[in-house]
Every structure is written in C-alpha cells, then in structure tokens.
C-alpha cells in the first residue's frame, strides 16, 4: 500500500510543478513553433512527464528539464510536419485573405479540392485555419483525441496538396499555347 500512496504523492507534486512551469514552457515553445503547434507540444511534454513522474522530482531545476523535453519534442514535431507548412501557408493565404480577382483560379481549385473532402475533414480544416483552433481544441469540439485530429489534418493536407498540385498543373497546361 505505501507504494500506491507514494505514486499519488509523486503525481500530485509533478502536477503542481507542471502548473507552476507551464506558462514559461508555453512561452518558450512559442519561440520555437507557431502558437497552435506550441500548445500541442506543451501538452505532449506534460504527457511525457506524467509517464515517469519521479524523473522530474529528482532534478534540481524542473524548468530546465521541461525545456529539454520541449526542445526535443518541438524538433520532432518540425521533422514530422515540415511538408505541411507550405500547404498551411497556401491555405492561410487563399482562404479569406486574398482578393478573389487576384487568385481566382487558385481559389476555384481550392474550393473544388475542399469539396472533394469528407464533411468532417472539411469541418476540421475550417476549425484549424479559419478559427485558428489547435488540435486539442478541435478534438474537444468533435469528440476526438488530439492525435486523431492531427492525423486527420495531416491526411487532409496531403489530399489537398495532391489535389491542388494536379488541378493547378492542369490549369497551367491549359494556358500554354
């Protein structure tokens, strides 16, 4: 029985340490990643620490320990999702911010590609890019895990990239005399 009590005490102490350090950790991550990604990685850091709570408690500087984990997870996040950055930037530019007459063909291609996606995936993309929600917030709204949302968004971005690439290449080929 004492081990179970000790585990609970460790978890309580770790949660208190996380609560104290989380604002600084998020600020640190926002220097490394876009805000929505920083929030996702901050949650991943918390989950990582809660898997082995004793490690955080043994150290002298919990903030430094958490930043080390955050640096590693941010690096992994950037390696995992680099190819989606261009699609994200393109979506952000063409969604509502560009004048329709400036990019009518691109917007038409984007609309056609979006129409080819399932309703739930379109809803996730809207929540991410129009409303600026992160994966955790989208998951809460749609009753999905944050990782499930990330995977669905990744698949959606891949599908959009393929579709947009094909449509825009076709349009370019049609314009060549």
Topology, please?
Layout: H1 2-32, H2 35-51, H3 53-58, H4 62-80, H5 83-97, H6 104-115, H7 119-130, H8 135-142, H9 146-175
Helix pairs in contact: 1-2, 1-4, 2-4, 6-9, 7-9, 8-9
**Assigned CATH superfamily of the largest domain:** Winged helix-like DNA-binding domain superfamily/Winged helix DNA-binding domain
| Number of structural units classed as domains | 2
Order of helix and strand elements from N to C terminus: HHHHHHHHH
Q: Unreliable segments (pLDDT under 50, ≥5 consecutive)?
A: 96-100
Separation of termini?
A: 81 Å
Estimated share of beta-strand residues: under 5%
- What percent of the residues sit in helical stretches (DSSP H or I)? over 70%
Number of helices: 9
The name of the CATH architecture of the largest domain is Orthogonal Bundle
Largest sheet: none
Calculate Rg over CA atoms. Answer: 21 Å
| Text of the CATH class of the largest domain | Mainly Alpha
How many strand segments? 0
Shape: elongated
Q: Roughly what is the average pLDDT, rounded to an integer?
A: 78
Going by helix content, strand content and strand pairing, the class is mainly alpha
Instruction: Assign the CATH topology of the largest domain.
Output: Arc Repressor Mutant, subunit A
Name the quaternary structure: single chain
């Amino acid at each position: 029985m004492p081990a179970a009590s000790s585990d609970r005490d460790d978890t309580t102490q770790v949660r208190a340490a996380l609560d104290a350090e989380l604002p600084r950790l998020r600020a640190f991550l926002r220097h490394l990643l876009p805000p929505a990604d920083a929030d996702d990685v901050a949650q991943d850091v918390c989950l990582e620490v809660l898997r082995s709570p004793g490690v955080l408690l043994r150290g002298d500087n919990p903030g430094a320990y958490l930043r080390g984990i955050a640096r590693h997870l941010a690096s992994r996040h950037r390696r995992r999702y680099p190819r989606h950055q261009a699609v994200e930037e393109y979506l952000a530019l063409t969604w509502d911010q560009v004048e329709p007459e400036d990019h009518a063909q691109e917007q038409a291609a984007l609309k056609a590609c979006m129409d080819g996606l399932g309703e739930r995936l379109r809803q996730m993309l809207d929540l991410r890019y129009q409303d600026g929600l992160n994966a955790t917030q989208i998951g809460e709204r749609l009753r999905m895990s944050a990782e499930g949302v990330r995977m669905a968004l990744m698949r959606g971005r891949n599908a959009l990239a393929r579709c947009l690439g094909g449509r825009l290449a076709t349009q370019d080929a049609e314009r060549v005399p």
